[in-house]
Amino acid sequence: AKERGEGGCQRYTAGMEARGAERNRRTAALRTAIMEDQMVVFFQPVVTLPEGRITGAEALVRWQHPTDGLVGPGAFIETAEQSGLIVPLGTWVLRAATREAATWPGEQTVSVNVSARQLREPGFPGVVAAALRDSGLPAHRLTVEITESVAVGGGATGENLQGLRDLGVRLSLDDFGTGASTLSLLATCPVHQIKLDRSFVPDAGGSDAIADAVAQMARAFAVQAVAEGVETAEQAARMAALGYDRAQGFYFARPMPAADMKARLNVAEAR
Ligand code: C2E
Ligand code: CA
Ligand code: CA
Ligand code: CA
Questions:
Q1: Which of 63, 100, 204, 250 has a CA that sits 20 to 30 A from residue 256's CA?
Q2: Which atom number of ligand 1 is nearest to the Cα of residue 118?
């Protein structure tokens, strides 16, 4: 029994080492990718409801892998978070997205995802201020998307959120409804916008009770309500009827390269 126990322990240790080595390999590959400029920013239009007019876009990072092709963030954001690489990667996305948005033909806004880890870093508002200054994008055209994990806070989170508000940047609570602290966070962390998580956008025949409740909450707090993951005309109509101001989703447009996004905006502006 003892031997078996030791053997089990060894196997467990070997497994842990293998996982550690795999993690190191992933981290090294990601670091190289960031250094060698293999990251690209895609943009997904955000539209008005019910008209469907483009008012801006969300910046979504992709990895243009030399052999694997275009890799989505689901495959590397966790590695970036665990290794701390999310900080330089996030800064890179912020700078690339603001630089691009500054070239758009109108007053459209750009939304950038910021991880809890970035938001804990002392001096984060300075990083944002530098990106705005260097790109020439006015602060009110940048929305910083945060998730409820910021409620855990720590580090400089509180003062950074205030620093961002002072800059005139807009704040959005992403994946709204998925965290336990949603309600208390709305009260303690004033934001300009909430984005209903796409899991609460009702499917055909499904209940819209949560989407309805969140829309009412948004009105009560006087924040803009965005419906994410809208895939059908029916969903768009239902979210509009519930009072959502904005929507994003495959029904309107998929995330696309910067050049395609700009071409769309130019067409829309010319109309
Ligand atoms: P998110 O911030 O909730 O972004 C929305 C995700 O939903 C995107 O996935 C988008 O492509 C997808 N989506 C949009 N419309 C639809 C739809 O109609 N149906 C469905 N099924 N999906 C839709 P993506 O680009 O794979 O990004 C996944 C997540 O990775 C993002 O979720 C965000 O949490 C994270 N992420 C992306 N870029 C960044 C970044 O620059 N920094 C950080 N920290 N996280 C990022
Ligand atoms: Ca987001
Ligand atoms: Ca989201
Ligand atoms: Ca759905």
A1: 204
A2: 44
Give the residue whose CA is nearest to atom 21 of ligand 1.
229
From 91, 113, 145, give the residue whose CB has the most ligand 1 atoms within 8 Å, as the site to mutate. 113
Which residues have CB under 6 Å of ligand 1?
A: 44, 60-61, 72-74, 77, 86, 90, 93, 113, 115, 174-175, 198, 229-231, 248-250, 255
- First-to-last C-alpha distance (Å) of the chain: 78
Cα 123 to Cα 76, 128, 130: the distances in Å are: 25, 9, 11
% pLDDT > 70, the chain: 93
d(CA 172, CA 175): 10
Q: Which atom of ligand 1 is nearest to the CA of 80?
A: 44
> pTM of the entire structure?
0.93
Token pair of 45 as six digits: 């239009």
Residue 85: HSE in the Cβ half-sphere, 13 Å Cα cutoff:
20
Q: How remote is the CA of residue 215 from the centroid of ligand 2, in Å?
A: 18
Q: How far does residue 204's CA lie from ligand 2's centre (Å)? A: 24
In the predicted structure, residue 35 carries a pLDDT above the cut 90: yes
Instruction: With CA atoms as reference, report the closest residue to 151 among 111, 122, 112, 179.
Output: 179
- In order, the DSSP letters of 95-120 are HHHHHHHTTSSSS-EEEEE--HHHHH
Mean of all residue pLDDT scores within the chain: 91
DSSP 8-state assignment for residue 228: -
Interface pTM, i.e. ipTM: 0.97
Q: Going by C-beta distance under 8 Å and a sequence separation of 6 or more, which residues neighbour residue 141?
A: 56, 101, 107, 108, 109, 110
- The first and second tokens of residue 152, run together, are 């855990």
